[in-house]
Every structure is written in C-alpha cells, then in structure tokens.
Request: fold
Amino acid sequence: MRLSLIQGTKQHRAYLVGAWAFAALVLILVPFVRLPWIFGNPTGQLQNWTRTLAFAVAILGLNLLIGFSGQISIGHSAFVGLGAYVAVITVADHHWSYFAALPVAFVLCFVVGCVVGLPALRIKGLYLVVVTFAIGIVFPTLVIRYETITGGANGKGVTSTIAPPTWTSLDPRDRMDPLRYRYFVLLIVAVVMFVLARNIIKSRAGRAMVAQRDNPTAAAINGISVPINKVIIFGLSAGFCGVAGWMLMVNQPFASDISFSVQLSITLIIGLVLGGVATVSGAIPGAIVVVVISHLFEQLTDAKKLGPLRMTWLASRPGRGGIVSMVFGALLLIFVFVLPGGFIDGLRKLRAKFVTITTRPAWLASINPSHSVPALEASVVATAASPVLADNSTIL
Amino acid sequence: MTTALDATSVSIEPFGIGRKIRRRLEEIGIRGVAVTAGVFVVLSLTFVAMDGLKLYWQRFLDGLANGFIYAAVALALVLIYKATGIINFAQGSMAMFFTFIAWVLSRQQSWPVWLAILTAMLLSSVFASGFERVFIRPFDPANHLPITIVTIALLSLIDGTAIYVWFADPKAFPSPFPSKPRQDYVDIFGARVFYATLGIWITVILMTIGVTLLLNRTKIGLAFRAVSSNLESSRLVGVNVGRTLQFGWALAAAIGTLAGCLVLSDSRTYLEPSFMAKSLVFAFAAATIGGLDSLVGAVVGGLLVGQMQTMIGGYVHFIGSDLVLATTLAIIIIVLLVRPSGLFGKVRVERV
Amino acid sequence: MSPQRNADRNRGRRVCNQGECSSVSLLEVEDISVRFGGIVALSDLSFNIEQGQILGLIGPNGAGKTTMFNVISRVYQPTHGRITFDGSDMLHVRPDNITRHGVARTFQNLALWSRLSVIENVMVGAHTQGRNGFVRSALRIGVKSEEARLGRKAYGILDSLGLAHLAFRPAAGLPYGTLKRIELARALASDPKLLMLDEPAAGLTHQEVDELGNLVKELRDRHNLTVLLVEHHMSMVMAISDNIVVLDFGRKIAEGNPAEISRDPRVIEAYLGVGAE
Ligand SMILES: Nc1ncnc2c1ncn2[C@@H]1O[C@H](COP(=O)(O)OP(=O)(O)OP(=O)(O)O)[C@@H](O)[C@H]1O
Ligand SMILES: [Mg+2]
Reply:
C-alpha cells in the first residue's frame, strides 16, 4: 500500500509530527540504552555517542562546502582542531566557561576559514583543494611549534568539565550522570547547528549555493556573486567544524597534534559520503558509522582490551592500526560506486516505495488554490534525487 | 566545460598603451618570471650579505637537491591534473607504497638497488593503469567531485595497507648512489655536495628529459598533449581518450615512485608509511606556483620551493624550520590570489 | 512602411532638450572585438538597440552571435570597444550585477539546474529581488514571506508561459522546447529591461515557432521589454524584428529592417555562400 500525502494537509502534518517525534525519542533514549556487543563499558558507550554528535556537526559543516557548494576540502581537520584548542586554552589557561568559548570557536574558525578561502575569489574549479591540503598538513606542525600555548605533542587537557547544575537533580559525582548531562547539552548544540544548516539550505541562500555549484556561469548571470558566496560558505563550514571541535573538548577535554591530522579530514569525508553528499540529515548516519568503526578498531590496537570482537589473530600484528584506514578506504570506494547518494539516498528511495509527498507550498493557496499537480512518476522522483556524486548535473 | 586557450585569452587581456607588447609577455608568463627572478636575486644578495657567500652557496646547493625532488613529485601531480583536471591525492601514497616495494626487492630479495627501483616503477605503472581503468574511467571526466573522492579512498586504502604490512617503524633504504662514509661528496667551489645529492640532480634532469621526449616524440605523447589541451576535440578526431589518460596515470605513478626512492637516498630520511607527506605538500606548493597545468612550471616551481625551504630555514630565524610548512601555505594562498593560474599556467575560459 | 511598424518605431524613448528631440538607445555597442587565441570571433562590431525594439541578430554558424551575448552579459572580456547600457558603461559591471542593471539572457546550450525544481530554477532568476543572505536565512528572519513572494512571482510567470503544471517537478527530463521556455521564464523573473534570447526556437516545430514569435512580441508589450534575438528560424526573425543586424565571421555585413535585409545581396551571399546576382 502506498501512502500519498499532499504538503500542508492535516495528514501530511501528522506524518511529519510522527517522524520527528520518533527521531526525538531515539535521541533522548540513546544515553539510557546499553549496547555491550559494540561498546565495552557504559561510560565509553556514552562518550562515543556524544562524540558522534560532534562528528555529525563537523560532517554537516563539511557537507555545506563539499556537497552543497561543490568545493572540496581535505583540510577541515584544522578547523576542528582550532575550535578544540580555543576551548581547552580559554578554559584551562584563562578560566573561561565552556559556553563562553563556544561563540569564540565559531567566529574564529569562520574568520580563519574566510581568509583561507580567499583564493576562491580569483580561482575557479578545484584549485582550492591544494590550499586545504596544505592547511591540513600545517595545522599539527603549528601545534608543535607553539608548544607553550598548545601543549604540543604531549597534548593539553582541562580538568574542569561542564557539570550538571543542581536543578537537574543529576549527581555530579555519579559515573554516568555528568556524561548524560553533557550528552544533552551537546545534543542541543547539535540540533541548533542542524536547524541553522537546514534553514540556510531551504532558502534563497541555499538555492544560490546549489546554483553556483551546478552551473557557476548561469548562477553569476542571475545575480549570484559566486566568489563571495564560495568564500562565505568556506568560512561557514569552517565555523561548523570549529563548533564540532569545541564539542569534542566538552566531551573529552584533551587535545593533541595527532588528533587533528589530515586523517581526521579523511574520516569526515568518509562519513560525509557514507551519509549522503549534499544532504543535511546524512551527517547523522555518517557520523555513527565512522565513530563506531573507529571505536571498534581502536580497541584492536590495544592488545589488552580486545573488545567484543576478539580478533586475537590481529592482536599480535604491530601494523593493526592500519586496518581502520583500509576499511574506510574500501567503504568509500564501495559507496561511490554502489550507493553514491549514501544512506540517506537509500532511505529516500525506500521511502518513495511507501510514501509519496506532493509539494504544495502554503503561498500557493493564495494565488491558485485549485492547482492540481499530477503525482510524479517514480522515475521522475528518482532523477530529482540523483546524487551529486553520480552524474554531471549541468547536463539535462 | 572549460576550454584551454592560449594565455592571450580574453579575461587577462590588459588594456591601454603597449597592449600588444604586454600581451606577448603575458603569453609566455614573462612578467611573473621576471618578478620572481627579481625577488630571488634581491633576497639572495641579502642573504649573501648576512652570512657570507660560502654559506649561501652551500645552502643554495642543498636547496637544489630538495628542489629537484619536489619538481619530480610536482611533475607527477601536474601530469594528472593536465590530463584530467583533478588532483590525485593518492599520488604521495602510491609513491610511498612502491618505494616500499623497491625496499622489499632490494633488501629482502637482495636485488641490485637500481633494478629494484626500476621494477617498482614498472609495477606502480601497472597498478596505476589498472586503477585508472577500473575506478576512474567509469566516471564522466568533467565531473571532478567523485573522481577526487575516489583518489581519497585510494589514499586511505594504500596508507592503511602500508601500515598493516610494514608498520610504522622507520627502515633504512639502500642508497642508489655511492655512499662510502667520508668519501661520499665532491667539492664544488668550496661547498660540499654529496654524491647522493648529485645523483638526485642527474636523475631528475634525465627523467625530465625522458618525459619531454616521451611527450613530444611519441604518438602516445602527442595524444596525451592533445587530450590535455582539449578533451572533447581529441575525442572527436578519434584519439582514444581513455587509453591516453591511462598512460598519464601510469607515467605519473612511475615518476612518483622514482621521486620516493630519491627522497630516501638522503641518508637522514628513513622509510616509513608517512615519509612522503612533507614532500607532497612542497610538491603541491611547487605545482601551484608553477601553474597546475604546466610541466615547465612544475619543475621551476619545485626548484623555487626547494630554495625557499632551505633559505627560510637558514636565514629567516624568526620563522625557522618549524614554520617552513606554514610559510609555504601562506605563499600558496598569495600566489593563488595574485596569479591564480601560477607562473606558467594557462588561463581557462568557461565556454557557454 | 506599415502603420504598425511606425508605431513600433515611435516606441523609441525620446529625450527632448530645448525643443530638439532625439531617440535614445537603450544599448549601444561600439567597436567590440573579441579574440580567442588565433580566432577573431568579433571585430569592430557596433550597433544600437532602441528602447522597446526587437533587434534580430543573425548570421551563419560561428558568426559570433553567442560571443556578442557573452560580451554583453560580461562572461567574455572584449579586446576593445565600449558597451553602454541605459547610460552606464557595461564593461565595468561584474557579471553578477548585470541583472541588477536590467539585462537578462537565455543560453544557447541550456544552463538550467537539473536538481532544482522548475519553480526553483525560475526563483533563482529572481535572486536579485530577494535580500535574505546567510544570516537572515539561518535565523529565518523574513524568509517565509520572501519565499512566498518569490514563489508567487515565479509561479505567475510560469503560468503565463503555460508551464504552471510543471512547477514543482525537477527540471531534469523535460523536453528540450519546454526547457527553453523555462529559461525564458527565468530570464523574465529578473524583471529585465533588455531580454537577450539565444536561439529560443531551437528544436521547435514550425507551428510552435510561430507561437513563440507571437509570445515574444506579447511579452515585449506586456513587460515593456527591449529584445535582442538570435535565431536561425528566419521566418520568426523576419516576422517580429524591428531591426536586424547580420554578422558573418565576426563582422557586421548588413543592418536594416527585415525587408531591406531580405533583399541585401551580401546577406544572401553570406547565407548561401555564392555570389548573389
Ligand atoms: N570560449 C571560446 N573559446 C574559443 N573559441 C570560442 C569560444 N567561444 C566562441 N569561440 C569561437 O568564436 C567563434 C564565434 O562563436 P559563436 O559561438 O559566437 O558563434 P554563433 O554565431 O553563436 O554560432 P551558432 O549559430 O553556431 O551558435 C567560433 O569560431 C567559436 O569557435
Ligand atoms: Mg551561438
């Protein structure tokens, strides 16, 4: 049976409310459900979910750049790192509260991102990736160089954390309660970032982004300032990654040079492609996959706690740390070829089998209430959702 | 779709008096070259004045050795960029992997070093052609995003495999050049030049000559130049575009592998899975400064970046060698802002 | 001269100064030259369009018509020459500002966005009439009303071109003629003074070409437009143009009203490639 809904009707609204309520329920229940076969201990599990939130925000930011505006960056690890260091340095050395560091992390990363994206003012195409690659490589060397501020290779940590206030009736000395509190705090931050991104996508600015991605000349002729757009989006995505860095520090307040190497950028790109290029919601499944996989294989590098998978044959290999990269590389190749739209595209195709939603914006009622749109055939729906990775969009 | 045009192309047309002369200059990038050469000479004189001629000369020659290596890696990057318009992020990893193969052949199988290197180069070409055929060719060459992502996947895959097989501890690579202790250098006007350094110069120069001959004197080379200047038209006149791009990948991989082995011929550098990263960044800088689609630019850019690295490390103390990478980044950004297509790159015009 | 054409002639805006009246051109193209490497795509081309006119720009393939469009819309930079539009120097306007000056165009090889819906394509055409940037969009300040305003406008234009039923489906997969119409809709959405159409009738049947010709005239009257038309369908160009400029190998070889052009030996030669005795 296929459900056919028209935008703006009561049924459609009920469907939306139901879907969102379900999502909210899942997100609220996450800190309370145990998954021992994936995660060893409950604290580790919760910290990994919180980490997932941070990764989701970073992937979302990167997707604004790669997916929606068509520029590639493999240097966004640097912005995650910058946000993280803003948090640890201000909190540890200047006794700021974490919340004061949040806007600073966003704004600083935005500004640095705009400066670094400046060449986009003059160049077309993929030249900018060279710059981003260099940033990704340079950032850890800067951390080492300014050791006195950053702690260098030994890393820098903070002892104070965000503690649950009394009105929450959570126990600050409990093992789980503060982690739960931080999960919910970061959940709110993540939701805000997702809402902001979604709002941008679904507006004039978002249309401009997609327009300049798929056909820069036509976009310019229609009044979109392509270079300025690109620079701002670069800054914006850097800002999102900065917030993600801050989130990582709220979760586990320790930063060192190796946590923000190009490897992190590649991990983010993998999450992005797995979740779905040019989707907002794809950042969530993408983040889940990369965090869970890294976690599973991280345990392998630690011979003592082999984790639930117990691959003893691996424990003796000194090179077992390479396995994660191999798995990620293979996954990325498989997805680009088999499911270029990522999980979200897969889900959408699946949903299209059961539910069709007919677009009818609210303003239409005032000029043509009788507008009857013929239901779109399945093939049309499929082309509409054609993944950015799969075909050349300028060819109609 | 973009079309390559001569640098006379419309968008950089200067206005005003002497337009024609200036246009001719723009065509061969003389202005950029002159400015660069001028800056170089002025800085050199300053450095000579600071610490004397002898030290400058020594640093100059050291920088030349690094420069040749960057030139080689940049050449590999530019070959792929010219042909396909993408940047192969896996270039450094491929070079690293096949340098390991050369190490396995020479150390574990006791082959002569040069035979091992040549075999590794050959194997890397075979691998690159296979990879191009299976994973790159299915995509529309004009759609850069998926192809770039495929190269990132390859990077991750190769790095992971290398770590898994050879772990992260450093290994000594047998030097392909004479390296008897204390008898391993010649004296050139008072500067000490190691045989290894000399070997790098000669090898890269020979390689560049070889590549030039290959591109200019062979049929496949001609096809390659045709495809990189205009893919659509080449296809129309019957060039087998897929095969030609495959050739580009194979050639680039071989050059990269050779460069990887040369990086290690310096006895202070050890073989480990991330040894190419630094050279790769400098090679990127070289390619950007020279112009991503210019082979000459790659070589000149490589030499410039080599000089930059030693001179900044040696003379500009407040920057020092720790910040050389950061300075390189700043220079890339400035070059892209001032001269978006580098010193020798062609300006491309969108065709609508 | 027919009374109809006379009426059209008078459409030219008149500026009167101390009793002396002269007709003012909306677009003045002076001595424009464009080179691509060895190819001279345009050489010393000059012509004027008066307010309210439909000017046909014709010539064999490769004559430089599209190049002229690209120069006016600032995609290509000419080697020399001047372009004055509505009193301002166009060559100092950035491409993304031409719609703000009142110039809109369509593309010979479609330049639509296949992943956007038809109405979104048209709404991009009205981009300059919105003012929501990143900040306002992110915070949804005034977004709803602006989206409604742009949406209603785009829908209205689509409706007037008979495309309303396609509004909410993706542009991908529609027939060529329809896509050309969507481009026309997008150009109209920017409320242009000058509308430049590059082969709008390509791929249409004879009857459709006639309809399109009437539509262009109608749009000109309704929206108070000036039109620069490139088209290979001579019947349409002859039927609706007030004036025609003929290009061959980047040079202007003739200019005049349709009747004059159709008799001009040079034009016949350029098109047929033989001496026209
Ligand atoms: N970007 C470009 N690069 C190189 N040559 C170009 C470019 N744009 C146009 N040309 C050349 O300029 C000349 C004029 O082309 P143009 O597209 O203006 O012709 P046209 O009159 O529009 O022809 P058609 O009727 O086929 O559309 C042609 O020789 C064309 O090859
Ligand atoms: Mg044309």
About this structure: The radius of gyration of chain C is 20 Å. DSSP finds eleven helices and twelve strands in chain C.
